[in-house]
Design brief:
This protein starts with a strand and ends in a 7-residue tail after the last helix. Helix content is 44%, strand content 14%. It folds into four domains: 3-122, 3-Layer(aba) Sandwich (Rossmann fold), CATH 3.40.50; 128-320, Rossmann fold (3-Layer(aba) Sandwich); 323-420, Helicase, Ruva Protein, domain 3; 436-502, Arc Repressor Mutant, subunit A. Strands 7-6-9-12-15-8-16 form a seven-stranded mixed sheet. It is α/β, with parallel strands linked by helices. Bound molecules: adenosine-5'-triphosphate. Adenosine-5'-triphosphate (ATP) is lined by residues 93, 149, 151-152, 180, 182-188, 251, 336, 369-370, 373. Pfam families: AAA_lid_14, HTH_8, Response_reg, Sigma54_activat.
């Protein structure tokens, strides 16, 4: 039986999740704060962690880093409110397996948990993805072996331009620098270049340099000999060696420490490397593709990245535009992700309603294709109509226009300021429908014109607003409303029903 650690400072949410997950065959441990969570991780050794992003004693990002440092192989699913989506997409880069948004839908959580547990059974390291040629037995390494997904194209000018560059550079041995926002498809391009190159029958190794700890980065990249440092209990083959003959993709390369950059320069210049603690040079024939969402020359000017390394890598560069600037491609990708999810869930959702298409084109997609994929996966799961309708889209997407004009909550508005820092968000023209409130639904019959009705309405709105601000954490909502938890519960009961699904 798989063990799940649920971390949430909302005691009721924890209990609901415990009941629901236990019913579905999981053994569940609870922790209401970060400190307890780290203790439970050691005691209970869970197979998966479901972690609320906002805890009172620790920031979700900080906790995730701690969990990943100590238990890199344990998948973590982040639970987040609508106003934290951008952050949630970012924390996936720190090694979270997935994120689910509140209000929680049981089927969505179960799907994410099942797929995380399935993947973690075959996955040993989370910083490297290795795609091996099918019959390669020589390279049966410690990293995960996957089959690459289908790469799709469109005939938009932006895509044709990318494709032309892929075609041009693939047969060469040039090092390549790919620029683009998080989730915009940089790794997918690197894989496509590898598949079209002479190296296609050798491994493709992708490393997320942002997820490498400073201490272990050298060993991950170059390997180590047994006993070369405390904790080096066995010999380890590094990812450069695994990629020998093939392609290595270094994502977020500017995150590598200065020391590792020096070692990397030697590899690039001399095409040789040594394992840490080793005394033998190993010849390397590896094509290097690097990606960054920050300009490396700027990083070099700030002293964060070695300029000589930048010039070595910059033999050819590709710019991937953000999804919001690729309106034509958007629906092609949406349909592709719908098809993948239909197959995965054995469903037959035919497509997207015109309203959904309009919403997609208005939204700014801070998490780019990765976010679109998650949104389509979730919508397909929740959809019980022929076409995907706005009601199964996340709140922050259907209410994007309102959030932009500060009509929803202060918290959402402050989140929007982060989004506005992104280059050229389009001017919103679509007035999105308001989703029915799925967690907390007003059920009282109110006579619209009575004074009592008006005050009940106002009270109801205040409670909903406080719950949203508190990310549906009732203790925090009670604090905002300046009432005790019990009073809030009674009020909620009065307005009826708290997430009956869970
Ligand atoms: N042309 C494509 N065809 C099909 N799927 C794609 C394509 N481009 C990207 N994707 C999918 O979109 C998602 C995000 O892409 P990818 O991981 O390549 O982005 P990235 O820019 O490397 O992200 P990050 O910088 O955060 O690592 C992945 O699930 C990927 O499979």
């Amino acid at each position: 039986m798989s063990k799940i650690l649920v971390i949430d400072d909302d005691v009721d949410m924890c209990l609901l999740l415990k009941r629901f997950l236990s019913k579905n065959g999981y053994e569940v441990t609870l922790a209401h704060n970060g400190k307890k969570a780290l203790e439970e991780l050691e005691n209970a050794e869970p197979n998966l962690v479901l972690c609320d992003f906002r805890l009172e004693d620790i920031d979700g990002k900080e906790l995730l880093i701690k969990i990943k440092e100590r238990y890199p192989r344990t998948p973590v699913i982040i639970v987040t409110g609508y106003s934290d989506i951008k952050v949630a997409v970012d924390v996936m880069k720190l090694g979270a397996y997935d994120y689910v948004t509140k209000p929680l839908f049981p089927d969505e959580i179960l799907l994410s948990i099942k797929s995380a547990l399935q993947k973690s059974a075959t996955k040993q390291e989370n910083v490297a993805t290795v795609i091996m040629p099918e019959d390669d037995s020589k390279n049966s390494t410690k990293s995960k072996t996957i089959t690459s997904g289908q790469y799709i194209f469109s005939d938009s000018p932006e895509f044709k331009n990318i494709l032309k560059q892929i075609d041009l550079v693939s047969p060469t041995n040039y090092s390549i620098l790919i620029y683009g926002e998080s989730g915009s498809g940089k790794e997918a391009i690197a894989q496509e270049i590898h598949k079209r190159s002479k190296r296609k029958d050798m491994p493709f190794v992708a490393i997320d340099c942002g997820a490498l700890s400073k201490e272990l980065a050298g060993s991950e990249l170059f390997g180590h000999e047994k006993g070369s440092f405390t904790g080096a209990l066995n010999q380890k083959i590094g990812n450069f060696e695994i990629a020998n003959g093939g392609t290595i993709f270094l994502d977020e390369v500017a995150n590598l420490s200065y020391d590792v950059q020096v070692a990397l320069l030697r590899v690039v210049q001399e095409r040789k490397m040594r394992r840490i603690g080793g005394n033998k040079d190993i010849d390397l024939d590896v094509r290097i593709i690097i990606a960054s969402n920050e300009r490396l020359l700027d990083a070099a000017k700030k002293g964060k990245f070695r300029e000589d390394l930048y010039h070595r890598f910059n033999e050819f560069s590709i710019e991937v535009p953000p999804l919001r600037e690729r309106k034509y491609d958007m629906m092609i990708f949406a349909k592709h992700f719908l098809k993948l999810t239909n197959d995965e869930l054995s469903k037959n959702i035919k497509g997207f309603s015109p309203e959904v298409e309009a919403i997609f084109k208005t939204y700014v997609w801070p998490g780019n294709l990765r976010e679109l994929k998650n949104v389509v996966k979730r919508a397909t799961l929740l959809c019980d109509t022929e076409y995907i309708m706005p009601t199964v889209l996340p709140f922050e997407i259907t209410n994007f226009t309102k959030l932009q004009f500060g009509e929803v909550s202060e918290e959402a508005t402050s989140n929007l300021q982060v989004r506005q820092a992104d280059p050229a968000p389009p001017v919103a023209t679509y007035s999105a429908p308001v989703l029915p409130e799925p967690v907390f639904t007003k059920q009282l019959e109110i006579n619209e014109h009575s004074l009592k009705g008006a005050s009940i309405d106002a009270e109801y709105e205040m409670i909903v607003e406080a719950l949203r601000k508190a990310n549906y954490n009732k203790s925090k909502a009670a604090k905002i409303l300046n009432v005790d938890r019990k009073t809030l519960y009674n009020k909620m009961k009065q307005y009826k029903q708290f997430n009956s699904d869970l």
